[in-house]
Amino acid sequence: MACNGMASSSSFPSNFMMQTHRGEENQLGIPVSPLLLANLQDLGGESFPGIETRDEMTADDDLSDDGLPAGEKKKRLNIEQVRTLERNFELGNRLEPERKMQLARVLGLRPRQVAIWFQNRRARWKTKQLEKEYDVLKRQLEATKTENEALQVQNKKLQAEVSLSSMKISSSF
């Protein structure tokens, strides 16, 4: 019996979960794995509503994540674009849609490029902040260790004095 109460005729384990390509679901809201799609296509090439064929799934693989044709080299931002983006980042490290569109227009970039630049810049900023905090904590730790060692030395001296005084007191009786 499968976990849904129906007899299982497949060889998949009961905990097998079918996932969709890129997290998508078909029109029925049922997750479909690429493996299942390949098997469905082998059943006669019949079309199923809401399910991409293998060819449809790979059709946009010719484009990179930023929409450029695969293999096309990304253009670097020029110095003036970077300076403008940096100045805007200093004003606020979050972008409202209207500000993103305005910056994209002024700089001759796509809004997505501006958004990604800000996202990457926030990540670099956060890393720098963590490094600064780490350095402060490291200095505090070293100072605390030094203070602890000094206190331990002082403690031993005091214990020796107490021990010596108690011997003097006991010997005087």
UniProtKB/TrEMBL annotation:
GO molecular function terms attached to this record: DNA-binding transcription factor activity, RNA polymerase II-specific; sequence-specific DNA binding
Gene Ontology cellular-component annotations: nucleus
Main location: nucleus
Function text: Transcription factor.
Keyword DNA-binding listed: yes
InterPro entries: HD, HDZip_class_I_plant, Homeobox_CS, Homeodomain-like_sf, HTH_motif, Leu_zip_homeo
Cellular compartment(s): Nucleus
Coiled-coil features, chain-numbered ranges: 120-161
Protein's GO biological process: positive regulation of DNA-templated transcription
Protein family: Belongs to the HD-ZIP homeobox family. Class I subfamily.
Species in which this protein is naturally found: Ensete ventricosum (Abyssinian banana)
CDD domains, per the entry: homeodomain (cd00086)
Alphabetized PROSITE patterns for the sequence: HOMEOBOX_1, HOMEOBOX_2
Keywords: Coiled coil, DNA-binding, Homeobox, Nucleus, Transcription, Transcription regulation
Region (Disordered): 53-75
Keyword Coiled coil: yes
Protein name: Homeobox-leucine zipper protein
DNA-binding region: 70-129
Top-level division of the source organism's lineage: Eukaryota
Record domain Homeobox: where: 68-128
PANTHER family: HOMEOBOX-LEUCINE ZIPPER PROTEIN, HOMEOBOX-LEUCINE ZIPPER PROTEIN ATHB-13
